[in-house]
Automatic annotation (TrEMBL), chain A:
Phylogenetic classification of the source organism: Bacteria, Pseudomonadati, Pseudomonadota, Betaproteobacteria, Burkholderiales
Organism superkingdom: Bacteria
InterPro entries from the UniProt entry: CPA3_antiporter_subunitC (IPR050601), NUOK/Mnh_C1-like (IPR039428)
Transmembrane segments: 6-21, 28-47, 77-99
PANTHER family: ANTIPORTER SUBUNIT MNHC2-RELATED
Pfam name, any one: Oxidored_q2
Annotated protein name in UniProt: Na+/H+ antiporter subunit C
Organism: Comamonas endophytica
Keywords tagged on the record: Cell membrane, Membrane, Transmembrane, Transmembrane helix
Family: Belongs to the CPA3 antiporters (TC 2.A.63) subunit C family.
Membrane protein topology class: Multi-pass membrane protein
Subcellular compartments: Cell membrane
Length: 121, 561
């Protein structure tokens, strides 16, 4: 389980960083989104007991209220906030991206329509 | 004073709540009601300034070495609930923010606030985010307030539109979103290791971290620091800063001079809390990196200042120079040096804000009153090959250039303001920049051997800081004097500048604050010394936050059956 999660976070982050360094604005925004997903998964894995399997997420009658029986609620609260903020920021970035596309006439991050940059694989 | 104490702890909430309510109210108004929004904005910012001054006076009560205000908005005891904390450093940052904000909104009132929509609500949201980030005593709320500040700054940067702003805004947003990811990774790692997000609780947990986890802790702190250092413009993470700051409209640029100081503030606050000398094995972790990074930033910024031709670019590099100086000085972790840097922080921020505003007026003068600058390249203004007097000058019978001409009042004001800005930014005597730099040099060299923590022998890094403080000052002087000569001494076919009172007054007030700081250097430095002492003995802060009891329920609890 740990290795699967670690691999997932690693692959998402790696792809995100790769896309972030690309010349097109669309690739940059995809990269930022992938990085945000990776970060959210990472926050989940940083609970007090690492990954909790088969544990209650919220309090339930009849189960003693300590962390032995429950998943750590804190990372879930953090992820929720991070997701909301991340969405808002991505939406805002998208607007700026469209505005940049409109003024520059191309979707290069520097606004320069360069042939050799465009031809890069 | 009694009246303020009566209002405390609740007054602490006002710097956050007041701008929030103001901007919420403004969102309800129609876009055409610009004048009403402007009035509301100025009044709210003015009220914010008064509140900040009241808080400053409260933290600096006579007789008490450290006065801490702690407020628990959710009424939960400290490590579990959200906490706000107010000490001298926080109050200082709040006052600086309010002064700069008031100056820039008055400046914007002349014309810039009409350059786009929703300027006023965004402005207030920015103030709310800044105040919240200064006041919070909780890592995750620090993230939330950072994001509020950033979201507002994205909008403000794009205010006025135009290709240059959108292009640099794109880079600015991308780099800040990436930095936010780093911030979250650092925060969650710290939570995983210590099990707390409260800064005071974190500080008391760090000496007891397992030996096996210490590497992870340092990694988490480094990742978190990376996020702050991107905000604080540490080299080389600031390639976006100069284009963005110089593309922004003048009042926004002035406000952005504060944004780099937010990064410096968080580094100061968190580093002195988490890695104080009492932090066991982790004591002063990363100090060499801070010093090295700060010094490299200083060198980079000085070269940038020398290399830039437009005044707005130069102001951007001056902002980087100021945060480099602050970070390098902070890395030493000595309370005397920290006092010097705390003095330097508001004085350089005020002068930078004034320089951003002044650059706008000079640009307009150069473009003969055109509403927007017609150029978008990096060409220098009227850079003729030789800056010698040419035709059309006053000559006497011997064909000598007549010295002494009537200087129009507006041009004289611009020239004087530019001179004061130069003096403060470069740290030349007799103004506040000089006092701040001397206080720092004095702490490093400590010729009289006074004080507690500063060493008598500066050592390699101490000498390096001394050399860089003087050298960057010299380079900045050369760069700014060159601009001054080009704008004020060389002859041009220009009319006298059109200066409105509402544009001159904010610049004059900002610079007047610097002069007052220099005149009142004794009491101001004493305040900074108290603030620095409190930063370097974090026990008081930790104790203050953790022992604050929740307010008891006013309704008596029902009898248990």
């Amino acid at each position: 389980m740990e290795i699967v999660l670690a691999l997932a976070i690693g692959v998402l982050t790696g792809s995100g960083v790769w896309l972030l360094l690309r010349p097109r604005t669309y690739q940059v925004i995809m990269g930022l989104s992938l990085m945000a997903y990776a970060v959210n998964l990472f926050i989940f894995s940083m609970g007090r007991q690492g990954l909790a399997i088969d544990k209650e997420p919220v309090l339930r009658a009849g189960i003693p209220t300590d962390l032995v029986n429950y998943a750590d609620p804190m990372p879930q609260a953090l992820v929720l906030t991070a997701i909301v903020i991340g969405f808002a920021m991505t939406a805002l970035f998208l607007v700026v991206l469209l505005a940049s596309r409109g003024t520059a006439g191309n979707d290069h991050v520097d606004g320069v329509h360069s042939r050799d940059v465009q031809e890069m694989p | 004073m009694d009246f303020i104490s009566l209002l405390m702890p609740h007054l602490m909430l006002a710097p956050i709540v007041l701008p929030m309510l103001t901007s919420a109210l403004m969102l309800l108004m129609r876009e055409e009601q610009q004048r009403l929004k402007l009035t509301l904005n100025i009044l709210s910012t003015l009220a914010g300034l008064l509140i900040a001054i009241a808080l400053l006076m409260w933290t600096d009560q006579a007789g008490a070495p450290v006065t801490m205000g702690v407020y628990q908005p959710g009424n939960w005891p400290a490590p579990f609930g959200i906490s706000l904390a107010l000490d001298r450093l926080t109050a200082l940052m709040l006052v600086t923010t309010s002064v700069v904000a008031l100056a820039s909104i008055v400046f914007a009132a002349v014309r810039w606030h009409r350059a786009g929509v929703h300027f006023h609500p965004l402005f207030q949201f920015q103030l709310m985010g800044l105040a919240g980030a200064f006041l919070t005593a909780d890592l995750f709320n620090l993230f939330v307030f950072f994001e509020i500040t950033l979201a507002a700054s994205y909008g403000l940067l794009l205010h006025g539109s135009g290709r240059a702003r959108i292009q640099s805004g794109l880079h600015y947003i991308a780099i800040n979103l990436a930095a936010s990811s780093l911030f979250l990774i650092g925060v969650s790692m710290l939570y995983g290791i210590t099990g707390t997000l409260n800064m005071a609780d974190l500080a008391s947990a760090i000496p007891h971290v397992d030996g096996a986890d210490r590497g992870l802790l340092h990694a988490a702190a480094s990742i978190l620091a990376m996020a702050f250092l991107i905000k604080a413009a540490m080299w080389p993470l600031n390639f976006w800063l100069v284009p963005a700051y110089s593309a922004a409209t003048a009042p926004v640029g002035a406000l952005f001079a504060l944004m780099t100081k937010l990064g410096v503030y968080t580094v100061l606050r968190l580093w002195t809390l988490m890695f104080s000398t009492q932090a066991g094995e982790s004591a002063l972790f990363g100090s060499t990196w801070l010093i090295c990074g700060g010094m490299l930033t200083m060198v980079f910024a000085a070269m940038g200042m020398l290399g830039s031709q437009r005044l707005t670019n130069m102001a951007g590099y001056a902002a980087i120079l100021s945060s480099g100086t602050l970070l390098a000085a902070a890395g030493f972790g000595q309370n005397l040096l920290t006092a010097g840097l705390l003095y330097y922080l508001p004085s350089s921020t005020l002068a930078l804000a004034a320089l951003f505003l002044l650059a706008d007026l000079l640009d307009r003068w150069r473009n003969a009153g055109a509403r927007t600058a017609p150029y978008e390249d990096d060409e220098a203004p009227f850079l003729n090959a030789e800056l010698v007097p040419t035709a059309g000058l006053n000559l006497d019978e011997d064909e000598e250039v007549l010295i002494g001409r009537v200087i129009p009042a507006a041009a004289a004001f611009l020239g004087l303001a530019f001179l004061v800005c130069t003096l403060v930014i470069t740290g030349l005597p007799p103004l506040s920049g000089f006092v701040g730099k001397v206080a720092m040099l004095n702490a490093v060299l400590n010729p009289m051997g006074v004080g507690t923590s500063a060493g008598h022998v500066p050592g390699f890094w101490g000498w390096a800081l001394v050399a860089l403080l003087i050298a960057t000052g010299l380079v900045a002087t050369i760069a700014l004097i060159r601009v001054g000569m080009r704008h004020f001494w060389a002859s041009h076919d220009r009319n006298t500048p059109q200066l409105r009172v509402a544009e001159g007054v904010p610049i004059a007030v900002l610079l007047l604050c610097c002069i007052v700081m220099a005149v009142q250097a004794g009491p101001v430095l004493r305040y900074m010394q108290h603030a620095a002492d409190a930063l370097h003995s974090p026990g008081t802060y930790i104790h203050g936050v953790l022992t604050q009891a929740p307010v008891p329920n006013p309704i008596p609890a029902k009898e248990q059956p």
